[in-house]
Amino acid sequence: MDVELGMMHCPHPVTFSTDSSAEEVNAALVEAQMKGSVADLVDDKGRHILVNGAALGYAIVGSQTRRPVGFGSLE
């Protein structure tokens, strides 16, 4: 799933892919924003992305469905 995070006072969004569910990502971001703490998200390569909840401007969390690619997806 793709995630895009917009940070305050930062002109470019932070984008990454993760194997976590949308509910897990949303819960971590909401908790960090409510408490003013840091959310620890892990991307699909095992890297940790630390997000300051107080500096989060917006979050776009992609869908869980994977779209077929290639000629096999044609009917």
Question: What brief labels describe this structure?
Answer:
three-stranded antiparallel beta sheet; two-stranded antiparallel sheet; 1 helix; 35% strand; nucleotide-binding; ATP-binding protein; ATP binding
How would you describe this structure to a colleague?
The protein is of the alpha+beta class and 75 residues long. It has one domain. Helices cover 19% and strands 35% of the residues. It has one helix and five strands, in the order ββαβββ. The protein has one helix spanning 22-35; strands spanning 2-7, 14-17, 38-42, 48-52, 56-61. The strands form two sheets. A three-stranded antiparallel β-sheet has the order 2-1-5, with helices on one face. The protein has a two-stranded antiparallel ribbon with strand order 3-4. The chain is globular and about 45 Å long. The mean pLDDT is 88. This is ATP-binding protein. Keywords: ATP-binding, Nucleotide-binding. Pfam families: DUF3107.
> How many structurally independent domains?
1
Please write the string of helix (H) and strand (E) elements.
Answer: EEHEEE
Number of helical segments?
Answer: 1
Question: Major sheet: size, sense and barrel closure?
Answer: 3 strands, antiparallel
Proportion of strand residues: 25-35%
Q: What value does the Rg take, in angstroms?
A: 14 Å
* Extended strand count: 5
Average pLDDT, rounded to a whole number, is 88
- Overall spatial form: globular
Proportion of residues in helical segments: 10-25%
Spans of at least 5 consecutive residues with low confidence: none
| C-alpha end-to-end distance | 25 Å
Structural class: alpha+beta
Pfam family, one: DUF3107
Keywords: ATP-binding, Nucleotide-binding
InterPro entries: DUF3107
Organism: Aeriscardovia aeriphila
